[in-house]
Amino acid sequence: MSQSAESPESSSAREPASPPGRGVILRTPIPGPAAQRIVERDRQFLMTTTKTSPVVAASGSGVWITDVDGNRLLDFASGVAVQAVGYSHPEVVRAIRDQAGRLTHFAGTDFYYEPQVRLAEKLVQLTPGTFPKKVFFTNSGTESAEAALKLVRWNRQRPIIVGLLGAFHGRTMGALTMTTSKPVQRARYAPFVGGGMHIPAPNCYRCPYKLQYPSCDLYCAKILKELYFQTSIPPDDVAAFMAEPVMGEGGYVVPPDGWFRAIKTILDEYGIPLIDDEVQSGVGRTGRWFAIEHHGVVPDIVTMAKALGGGLPMGAVVLPSSFDYPVQGSHSNTFGGNLLASVASMATLDVIEKEQLLDNARVQGDYLLERLRELQSRHSEIGDVRGIGLMTATEFVTDPTTKEPAIAFRDRVVEESYRRGLILLPCGRSTIRYVPPLIVRREEIDEAMEILDAAIRAARARE
Ligand code: PLP
């Protein structure tokens, strides 16, 4: 490990790391008796959503969750890529506590508070592009998508939004119009909001055109102009193009180098703005503040949520000032930029800077990818290993040549992992994502990889 690899860790405010292989403590099977009772009550009283594993958390610290049966579990899901600075970071907790004792809510959209303004100034500074920008605060990723979609429709008065097949932008009706990551998310909800159109996403592991990068010459970008703009999508009717810089729920698919630049060149030619959905990839996850920075393009609008709030519901849209509404009342909400969420966000951004977590995400992300590739060399079920920074994934296949998705196998690996104390989340059809908090240490990655290795063997033994 290089010097720079170690410095972010040594500045961390965390408790000492557990010895390798000794961090996970299992006192009961997962789920234990207390967890089982809660899962049963949950099934009775909560609407069905997207539950994946019967893990019932009682508390969290760093990359560790203690469940209601006293088991200590290693968390490589981060509450769906939310807990960037780790669970219960003292500075985030302090900021929330201090603010909670003074004032929690006064409606920042109708009146004023300073923490919200300070956070907006910071986001204007951190997002790519030096043009004048403004911020609208939301409560979630889907609400950020809605706000961005309304903004471009209001400003440009054109009916079409172009997105990618496989994208995930949220589940409210406007966002869902652009979400195409799984049929179950859309089934029985049509008709959607008018104007949503999609082109195939760049995906070199499963190229929709069966071409090879780089000899394909980025046909998956050029096709927007060469085919779609000549047939089904009149470019003058397009209000915006919306994409994730790394496709998240759709399977952690990283576009090939040059794809975003090629798309942006086409969009610029027609004056079409780019909405960059950083809800999952933003706020340091990939080792840069925003993942689009890896692609070398400057988006017009950036949407974010998840990690921004440090565990509280918080989202934001950063827009060109020229897109701001000229009149009051065209768009607003009640809780956007809530005081607790604003101070938690600001503390999160401060911690990322102070503890050099962008560096740590890059260094540990490279190490995690290396360890996953090592596992791939020993387990033929791992068809692909991919990611940027700490936004990493493995795609499972029944056969590396046919690349048939190994969906049941992937599900068994998730199950065998939590049984051994490692919390993971699936995505895509047969992929597992590895998104530990950005504070993760090398020895925690080692422990996770040991458990994953054992889980893959156990999943195979169950076939
Ligand atoms: N956009 C992206 C890229 C996401 O990954 C998600 C959620 O996973 C959303 C939007 C929706 O966010 P939320 O679940 O907070 O509505």
Word description of this protein:
The protein is of the alpha/beta class and 463 residues long. It has a domain at 94-354: Aspartate Aminotransferase, domain 2. The chain is 36% helix and 16% strand. It contains 14 helices and 15 strands. It has helices at residues 3-10, 33-45, 78-81, 90-102, 114-126, 141-156, 173-178, 183-186, 219-226, 259-270, 339-354, 357-378, 407-419, 442-461, and strands at 57-61, 64-67, 72-75, 133-138, 160-165, 196-200, 238-243, 274-277, 301-304, 315-320, 382-388, 391-396, 422-423, 425-427, 431-434. The chain has a 7-stranded mixed sheet with strand order 4-10-9-8-7-5-6, with helices on both faces. A 4-stranded mixed sheet has the order 1-2-3-13. Strands 11-12-15-14 form a 4-stranded antiparallel sheet. A hairpin with a 2-residue loop joins strand 1 and strand 2 (64-67). Helix 4 (90-102) runs antiparallel to helix 11 (339-354) and helix 12 packs parallel to helix 14 (442-461). The longest helix has 22 residues, at 357-378. The two termini are 39 Å apart. The relative contact order is 0.16. The structure holds pyridoxal-5'-phosphate (PLP). Residues 140-142, 145, 168-170, 244, 248-249, 277, 279-280, 305 line the site of pyridoxal-5'-phosphate (PLP). Residues 140-142, 145, 168-170, 244, 248-249, 277, 279-280, 305 line the site of pyridoxal-5'-phosphate.
List keywords for this structure.
463 residues, alpha/beta, Aspartate Aminotransferase, domain 2, four-stranded mixed beta sheet, disordered N terminus, binds pyridoxal-5'-phosphate
CATH class of the domain at 94-354: Alpha Beta
> Could you tell me the mean pLDDT?
95
CATH superfamily of the domain at 94-354: Type I PLP-dependent aspartate aminotransferase-like (Major domain)
Question: What is the number of strand segments?
Answer: 15
Order of helices and strands: HHEEEHHHEHEHHEHEHEEEHHEEHEEEH
Q: What global shape is seen?
A: globular
Count of DSSP-assigned helices:
14
What is the alpha-carbon Rg in Å?
22 Å
